[in-house]
Write a structure and sequence with these properties.
Layout lengths: L10 H9 L4 E2 L2 H16 L3 H16 L5 E2 L18 H12 L6 H7 L4 H12 L3 H19 L5 H7 L5 H12 L3 H14 L2
Antiparallel strand pairs: 1-2
Length: 198
């Protein structure tokens, strides 16, 4: 017998869950209907709770294109070129992934790519659609979000420094720019979403 979530009928639900690992914001136009679904899950008992949970997931999957992520976008580390594992852009992605927690500069990555900083900026923007700094910030904020969700006892500043940020002021600005909220609000929203389903 296949595991429940491997059934083809649940592909859209799996896609929605996979695309929103750090949570999401419900658009105002759907807030009332989704809230009602959540309350039905909370008040139901036994098998009805499971059924209402699936109805909730279906409702969320139906509006998935209208939701906004609570945290940094999921970043696919796949080359937009040929897609081969040895392509230059893939090697650059991997280098950034391995070193983003350190003090990583544009000059460092350009040197790794064997390009001048100016040529690297053009190359990166052409293949990613965003600047290197924006990409690096998104990688770092995504990791901060992961750690905020897992390490409730660690301070935000400790996590930020461990993820490559060297200024709390800059971190707070970048975090809000990418997620739309400050770290404290993010944790509160994440916990509320999590506990509402229990």
């Amino acid at each position: 017998m296949k595991p429940l979530f491997s059934l083809g009928e649940l592909d859209s639900l799996n896609q929605f869950i996979y695309s929103n690992p750090q949570g999401f914001k419900i658009p105002e136009s759907h807030f009332k209907s989704v809230s009602e679904r959540v309350l039905q899950v909370k008040s139901a008992v036994q098998i009805d709770k499971l059924m209402h949970f699936f109805y909730l997931l279906r409702s969320l999957a139906n509006i998935s294109k209208e939701t906004d992520p609570l945290c940094a976008e999921r970043i696919e580390e796949v080359s937009l070129e040929a897609g081969t594992s040895g392509s230059r852009i893939t090697l650059i992605f991997n280098y950034i992934k391995e070193n983003f927690k350190n003090e990583l500069t544009l000059a460092d990555v350009a040197e790794y790519a064997n390009l001048t900083p100016q040529a690297f900026c053009r190359y990166f923007k052409k293949h990613c659609g965003i600047t290197f700094v924006h990409y690096l910030n998104r990688i770092r904020v995504k990791e901060v979000c992961n750690q905020l969700n897992e390490n409730y006892l660690d301070s935000v500043s400790f996590i930020a420094y461990n993820c490559g940020f060297n200024s709390i002021t800059n971190f707070n600005r970048v975090f809000k720019q990418i997620t739309g909220c400050n770290p404290k609000e993010y944790v509160q929203q994440y916990k509320q979403t999590l506990y509402s389903l229990i």
